[in-house]
Amino acid sequence: MSNHEHSGPDQAGQVIESIAHREQELQVLLNGAHTEAERILNEARTQADQLLKTAQQELLQQAERQKKTSADQAQEIRDRLLAQAAKDAAALEQKALANRQKAVETIVQQILPEEQ
To answer: How far is the C-alpha of 46 from the C-alpha of 103, rounded, in Å?
Structure first.
């Protein structure tokens, strides 16, 4: 029994030593997992920041395009209205000229009546 009693504490020491060694291995793996998780999170944050910047740039570009489109449409409307106003003014000028001619003829007839 002396041999058995002697090997018992040695075996227990070996088991404890094995458990301690395995604990150290697991701690190393855990530390590695934490480091990898932190790296992945940082990479994800960087990608998210880049996506946000890209989205903001696209929104600004879209806003500029809409602004230009609106300005172009406003210019087209303004040009169309000015063209119509010029056309209307020319028509009114022609009408006024015709009315003036009739007025002159009427005045001349009143001043110098034709003999019938």
So the answer is: 84
Query: pTM value?
Result: 0.50
pLDDT tens digits for 39-98? Answer: 999 999 999 999 999 999 999 999 999 999 999 999 999 999 999 999 999 999 999 999
Residue type (1 letter), 35: T
The CB-side HSE value for 89 (13 A sphere, CA atoms) comes to 6
> Amino acid identity of 62?
Q
The full set of domain ranges for the chain reads 1-83
Sign of the alpha-carbon torsion through 42, 45, 51, 55: negative
Q: What is the DSSP string of 35-58?
A: HHHHHHHHHHHHHHHHHHHHHHHH
The 8-class DSSP code of residue 65 comes to H
Query: How far does Cα 95 stand from its chain's mean position?
Result: 54
3-state secondary structure of 97: helix
Backbone angles phi, psi at 23, to 5 degrees: -60, -40
